[in-house]
Amino acid sequence: MMHSSDIDILRFTTCGSVDDGKSTLIGRMLFDTKSIMEDQLQAVKSASARRGMSGLDLSLITDGLKAEREQGITIDVAYRYFSTNNRKFIISDAPGHIQYTRNMVTGASSSNLALILVDARKGVVEQTCRHAFIASLLRIPHLVLCINKMDLVDYNQDIYQSIVDDFRNFSSRLEVQDVQYIPISALNGDNVVHRSENMPWYQGTTLMYHLEHVHISSDLNQIDCRFPVQYVIRPRSEKFPDYRGYAGRISGGVFRAGDPVMVLPSGFTSRIKSIGLAEKELEEAFAPMSVTMTLEDDIDISRGDMIVRENNVPQSGQDIELMICWFNKRALQSDSRYLLQHTTHEVRCQVKEVRYKMDITTLRRIQQDPALGMNDIGRIRIRTTQPLYYDSYRRNRYTGSVIFIDEQTQETVGAGMII
Amino acid sequence: MFSYNLDHLRELEAESIFVLREVAAQFEHPVLLFSGGKDSIVASYLARKAFYPAPIPFTFLHVDTGHNFPETIRFRDEWVKELGAELIVRYVQDSIDKGRVSEESGIHASRNALQTTTLVDAIEELKVDAAIGGARRDEEKSRAKERFFSHRDEFGQWEPRNQRPELWSLFNGHHRKGEHFRIFPLSNWTEIDIWQYIKKENIRVPEIYFSHERDVFVREGNIYAFSDFVQLGKDEHVSRKVIRFRTIGDMTCTGAVESVATNLEDIIREVATSRYTERGSRIDDQRSETSLEDRKRAGYF
């Protein structure tokens, strides 16, 4: 562990099938970066001993809730933290089997990188393809395929190479920009944090080196200025009788004091008078900063409005096409109505058409079955009660994403990515 | 391409402020659970930044066990006054007097678990629909699965299987009458992030976080403050040590560490090189392997 304060954050998600060694890999990363504390280590040692193991079972480091231990399953996405001299890491550890689409989509939505595990003995399997598809659908900018358990195939280069070829072949049909292939043994620590001496034929970096150095500063859209207004600050105090501040998190682009801006949906224009946070004024602010903005003119602005640049406005409309992941037992059907949350804006919508359901193993589109059940992914068209101001998800993850809420149960039932 | 990049503290700050503003926008009766510990201090500090120059739109709620460090209570009152916030205190003693809970007995007696009833009662009484807390996911394994917006049923209980997926930065605060949310804006912060931020922003914290001399006793290898609230076992005796507290809970269950860290730089160095977790010396977590998980399910913070 380190204590420099000038580091950035890499968020990554781990995916693998049961027994691919995902827990062992996470345990290995935490252990080899000395992120496991003495009291945690003692707990793992005694748990390993209870299970009749002589050494340390690293997979027990990520052991979760009581119900999970009792049933030997993982229920939900768990978050883990560690840091090195260069970065702070946030791992969203999604279980591989139960509810895996929902969990992986959740973990993937905020990740810079996805780490997909493959068992060297089994190669690219159905689950690998599903994970890669979801990573590409959620547009995780960086992908690492870890070919694990190399120790069980005698660290054989040909096996590694054929898995790499298989995955390349499959992923050529997906939109993934940056893929790294790393042969590892999580159990023995080869190429995780320390370079392996068993695979001299591998010239690439270790997993940890890659995680520490992958370039993420251009993962966010710093071109199209988007500021969804989250909250209007009106103190009405003696000191600030007429102050009106617009609070929010910048979803894209760079805003500067003095910039001409336009407010949607009203279309009124003004200039940024100040931008900052609390007493601190900034010259410029960019995604993903949370700031408070004031404008030169008194315009009626409320939560759900969006401040943009006049010469670069988002798309708008009530008929929206999207890819959707469905999370609920009650299937999504044509004509169903839902609440839709988009940036800080909430509207109602009706599903007009389910265009197709995706078979995410074969990447085939299934057109004859119009209902989307739990964990299904498909493409739909909706109509909203009011216009949305949006970008395609491909262009901006934050102005291009929505969640669906069931009005009766109030639950989040689906996640959509605008095409 | 631009190369705009935030360092980790500014990114965490931006995320937490977004969450706090979402609470103000989505809920009618939000409260901020304030204990006077470093995490709730940072949460309230961020709330001030989020809504400046308007006052913080959350009432502060403290569930007072009556077993707090006097230094913490003094700090609490000063801090709340500085922020201009309104503080509501609900006492575990009142829950005991009303017969809602009964006091534990014996040398391991603690009021820690009793807080849950007082808290859930206060949430009902004040019609709270969102209770903001300073809990972090790195603290404990059952916290590792918490949401930012954590749904609680009408009995205040946490059901890990029934939590809502949280995607991008879209938080669904819709709920039925009687249900509420616990909100954890500091979910992604670690102990060292908190200290680095306190140093960077020059935030005041109670003096018991820094090294000082105190009457203590040792129990099962951990050092505890001696006070009127504890009962010594027959082989236990009081001694004087130079210590500090890494975490602040009740005097009866918060372990100290021997330390000469007198300033924030010392603390950061100490936390960075420590080989033990922050909650490693909290008796309340050590009652069983799933102690915190069980209390969370029942409605604990």
Characteristics of this structure?
heterodimer; A: alpha+beta; Rossmann fold; Elongation Factor Tu (Ef-tu), domain 3; eight-stranded antiparallel sheet; six-stranded mixed sheet; 7 helices; globular; B: 301 residues; alpha/beta; 2 domains; four-stranded antiparallel beta barrel; 10 strands
Short description:
Chain A is α+β, with helices and mostly antiparallel strands. In chain A, 18% of the residues lie in helices and 35% in strands.
Could you walk me through the main structural features you see in this protein, from its secondary elements to its overall organization?
The complex is a heterodimer of chains A (419) and B (301). Chain A has 419 residues and is of the alpha+beta class. Chain A folds into three domains: 8-213, P-loop containing nucleotide triphosphate hydrolases (Rossmann fold, 3-Layer(aba) Sandwich); 226-308, Elongation Factor Tu (Ef-tu), domain 3, CATH 2.40.30; 315-418, Beta Barrel (Elongation Factor Tu (Ef-tu), domain 3), CATH 2.40.30.10. Chain A has seven helices and 23 strands. Chain A has helices at residues 22-32, 38-50, 66-71, 100-109, 126-137, 157-171, 207-213, and strands at residues 8-15, 78-83, 87-93, 113-119, 142-148, 178-183, 226-228, 231-233, 245-249, 254-256, 260-264, 269-277, 280-281, 284-286, 290-295, 306-308, 315-326, 337-342, 345-359, 364-366, 377-390, 401-405, 412-418. In chain A, the strands form four sheets. In chain A, strands 7, 8, 9, 11, 12, 13, 15 and 16 form an eight-stranded antiparallel sheet that branches. The longest helix of chain A is centred in the middle third of the chain and has 15 residues, at 157-171. Chain B is built from nine helices and ten strands. The radius of gyration of chain B is 19 Å and the shape is globular. Chain B is 32% helix and 16% strand. Chains A and B meet through helix 2, strand 2, helix 4, strand 9 and strand 18 of A and helix 1, helix 2, helix 6 and helix 7 of B.
